[in-house]
Design goal:
Elements lengths: L6 H8 L2 E3 L5 E4 L2 E4 L9 E6 L11 H7 L3 E5 L6 E6 L9 H20 L3 E6 L5 E4 L2 H8 L8 H5 L10 E6 L7 H9 L5 E7 L1 H4 L24 H24 L3 E6 L4 H6 L6 E3 L1
Parallel strand pairs: 6-7, 6-9, 9-10, 10-11
Antiparallel strand pairs: 1-12, 2-3, 4-5, 7-8
């Protein structure tokens, strides 16, 4: 069922802000990566993983020797000023109406900032089906997003269209799946001049209370993880959450990505100016 996305909330949060884009050269796992959009069409811009149908003449054999994987040299004219927004459509993102609303709003807000900067936003959302939308179709796609995915986000993305080279890739998820962070972060960073990871958590994700007799349950599988939510169980959960987030923060630093954590209990305009400040430049 479609959920109305309040365009006014998104526009108010975007007012006075500009999307922060990568600038200047920085160093990645495969060597120098240029983030500037200035230069001739023959200037080396980036590397990306080989995909069937690519020109084999562009394979960088030095990178193959170092990594054991096929990588292509990407020239300046191949990199369009796109902003790619990946949205996790797993069931855990709809554990509360507030969490689902913030996920939709954050994705729409990034797209609004991209359009204000003259960029072309594209949204890819997972779930039981994978959807891709651009232009005026983005809002309808976000409103129709069901958050019904029953597999980890990284596995669901394998059913998505291949990620294309882009200026900035923004990933909106709760990042609570068990997959190792570093390999997935490296995969997300490939082909993007800049990467931003946005973790949206519900108040119960951050500090579960649940009340008397409450149980911890896996929202994807329905499996009961603990019989009763005692203070000891809550403490163990919070320790595991802290360690898990720390691993993701480390993975983000390794691939030169920004990391932001947004609590769904706050409204979008407040998040845009505090928790999500890594994504914006205030005019």
């Amino acid at each position: 069922m479609s959920v109305r996305l309040d365009h006014g909330i998104v526009e108010r949060a975007a007012a006075g802000c500009a999307l922060r884009l990568p600038r200047g050269p920085h160093r990645g796992r495969l060597g120098e990566v240029r983030a500037s959009s200035v230069g001739s069409s023959l200037e080396l811009h980036d590397f990306r993983q080989y995909q069937p149908g690519d020109d084999l003449r562009q394979i960088d054999w030095n990178a193959v020797a170092r990594t054991g994987e096929l990588y292509l040299r990407v020239r300046q004219d191949e990199v369009s000023p796109r902003v790619e927004v990946l949205v996790d459509g797993s069931a855990s993102l709809a554990i509360s109406p507030e969490k689902a609303a913030r996920v939709r709003e954050v994705a729409a807000w990034v797209c609004a900032l991209a359009r204000r900067g003259g960029l072309d936003p594209v949204v890819i959302a997972t779930g039981s089906t994978v959807r891709k939308a651009g232009g005026p179709s983005i809002r309808a796609m976000l409103e129709a997003l069901e958050f019904d995915g029953r597999e980890p986000f990284d596995a669901a993305l394998r059913r998505a269209p291949p990620l294309r080279p882009c200026g900035l890739r923004v990933v909106v998820s709760d990042f609570l799946f068990e997959s190792p962070p570093e390999p997935f972060a490296e995969r997300l960073a490939r082909g993007a001049s800049g990467l931003s990871l946005v973790q949206v958590l519900d108040a119960e994700d951050l500090d579960p209370s649940g009340g008397a007799g409450a149980r911890l349950t896996d929202s994807e599988s329905g499996e009961v993880l603990e019989r009763i939510l005692t203070p000891h169980v809550v403490d163990q959960y919070l320790e595991r959450l802290k360690a898990h987030v720390s691993l993701w923060q480390g993975a983000a630093r390794r691939v030169h990505a920004s990391w932001s954590q947004a609590s769904a209990e706050f409204q979008l305009d407040a998040l845009a100016r505090k928790e999500l400040h890594e994504l914006v430049e205030v005019a």
